[in-house]
Amino acid sequence: MGGTPHLQPMLPIPGTEPAAPDMVPLLLVDGHNLLWGGTFGFPAPIYSRDKTRLLTGLFAFFALLRVAIREDVPGGQPEVLVVFDGEHGGADRKETHEGYKASRPADDAALLPLQFLPDVKRGLNLVGISWAEMEHAEADDVIATIVSRTPPPRPILMMTRDKDYYQLIDDRVVVLNTKFRAGQRLVTPAEVFRRHAVTPAQWADFRALSGDPADEIPGVHGIGATTAAKLLAEGLSLDELPASGRLASGRGRHVAEQFELALKWRNMIRLQTDLDVPCTPTGEPSPLLPKPADLVEELGLW
């Protein structure tokens, strides 16, 4: 666990009106995902006044988060919890499949966002936003555990560009993807089906068949997204395919021949929901974020 929940803010941040705990939206932020997206996707680099210090990742992290809260979170000021990947997160998946995320570049340029991480955490502490990091867990598993333990009817948004989170989506849990155009950034069950022809409950099965290029999980050889969706049509699960008759001919035979492999991929893709997560949402709104420039100033980095 990193940071302290609901620290008293050191900046003059306006307060929020009390709200019923079950109706305060919970915004769970995939911290590394936001940091990488901000560092490499911000319109222009940001430097200190003397031009000696690059600040893009830090500035962009808080700028994108502030705008998302203001423009994309329905239901009022949310409780915000940022979750970062642990240093050894994903080790279990790598033991299962050596190729898991194996080709991701690890040179200085690719890892540039990490240089901003300590100051991002300092900034979160400064403004009173809680954050968590478990050394041996990936952020998506921590977030999945928090989602599973947050009772309805509380609405939950998961701020990320990672489609692994689609498997958690339901009538009250959505993905907030700020890379999508305005007005279309909330990914609901209907949106998952519109884009991929499967339901969130089928997502792990769908990816087990078709593969997950981002995580370098190959899926079943010879099965693409279109075929995978057809095999799972009418809500079938991977477990139901052998008795469905859909694996007896055509490309379905590839699945029959590689069925145990498909089960292996699904086990890797499924998010864990039983971690011993050292943080619990309070049900109270988090403080409003200041302008990112004011935060950078308060951190003494301008």
Please explain how this structure is put together.
It is a single chain. The chain has helices at 31-41, 56-72, 91-96, 117-127, 139-149, 189-196, 203-210, 225-231, 252-257, 259-269, 292-298; strands at 26-30, 79-84, 130-133, 156-159, 173-176, 186-187. With 302 residues, the chain is of the alpha/beta class.
Keywords:
6 strands, 11 helices, 5-3_exonuclease, 302 residues, DNA-binding, alpha/beta, exonuclease
Topology (SSEs and partners):
Elements: E1 26-30, H1 31-41, H2 56-72, E2 79-84, H3 91-96, H4 117-127, E3 130-133, H5 139-149, E4 156-159, E5 173-176, E6 186-187, H6 189-196, H7 203-210, H8 225-231, H9 252-257, H10 259-269, H11 292-298
Parallel strand pairs: 1-2, 1-4, 2-3, 4-5
Antiparallel strand pairs: 5-6
GO biological process, one term: DNA replication, Okazaki fragment processing
Protein name: 5'-3' exonuclease
Pfam families: 5_3_exonuc, 5_3_exonuc_N
Order of helices and strands: EHHEHHEHEEEHHHHHH
Can you list the strand order of the major beta sheet?
Answer: 3-2-1-4-5-6
Low-confidence stretches: 1-19
In this structure, how is the largest beta sheet organized? Answer: 6 strands, mixed
Estimated radius of gyration:
20 Å
DSSP E strands, number: 6
Organism: Catellatospora citrea
Protein name: 5'-3' exonuclease
Function: 5'-3' exonuclease acting preferentially on double-stranded DNA.
GO biological process, one term: DNA replication, Okazaki fragment processing
